[in-house]
Amino acid sequence: MVARKVVGGLIQMSNPINDPNASVAKISTAMEEKHLPYIEEAGKQGVQLLCLQEVFNGPYFCPSQDAKWCDIAEPIPGPTIERMQKLAKKHEMVMIVPIYEREMAGVYYNTAAVIDADGSYLGKYRKNHIPHTAGFWEKFFFKPGNLGYPVFKTRYATIGVYICYDRHFPEGARLLGLHGAEIVFNPSATVKGLSQYLWKLEQPAHAVANGYFMGCINRVGVEAPWNVGQFYGSSYFVDPRGNFLAQGSEDKDELVVAEMNLDMIEDVRRTWQFFRDRRPETYDDMVKQLP
Questions:
Q1: Among 18, 38, 124, 251, who pairs with 224 as Cys (CB 3.0-4.6 Å)?
Q2: Is 90 left (phi over 0), alpha (psi -120 to 50) or beta?
Q3: Is 51 a catalytic residue?
């Protein structure tokens, strides 16, 4: 039997315009344009599943509470996703495209659209866990997701999406596995400091606990005018045994590519029978509201 091997790609990127006087539209356009040669390179390298970083076509604007950044938001599908659909079809490449989604006036989500290798739009995941703390005022911009934890059956693999702060919550990571995800992508924006040691700890733990691959993306650079810290890149793929397959640098724009043998999922789960040995009838307290 032929092994089910797929090639995954992650793009980590810095903001090309750190000018606080530049318009939202100019910054967004520049960020999208900067990605294009990397998407083309992914196609040349035979990447079959490509994930971009959190709100890929803009800076991480949540250190502010300035409503002008709502101008980046757009419907899904909409202009940006339609452009990415053409690229996905051109390269026969599944694409996970995180953008700021406008559902209606005043209702916005942190969302990732999933596009199949023929360019068709498969659906979207809306970030469920929304932080609100110094430098990360996300509740100002994003409504919590309301689509649950869907998985998407693409041409090459069944995939799930978890976005940035979601990664601190094992419950959704488990549900993605129970729903059939073989690869989970986590597009993020996180800076050096408290979270950095967790970056290489939590997501390999999710991969091991649930017996799937993960592709984890973080942007790079320092973004003015907020300067909340350095986005440290270090994007990586990890397998169901917790082994790192490929990893990006901390400080440069980069396409990270890895081959994943999906047959490993079966092998790992036959050894570690976590799904068989679950006791959901004992977990009621997990979903009770705290006082």
A1: 18
A2: alpha
A3: no
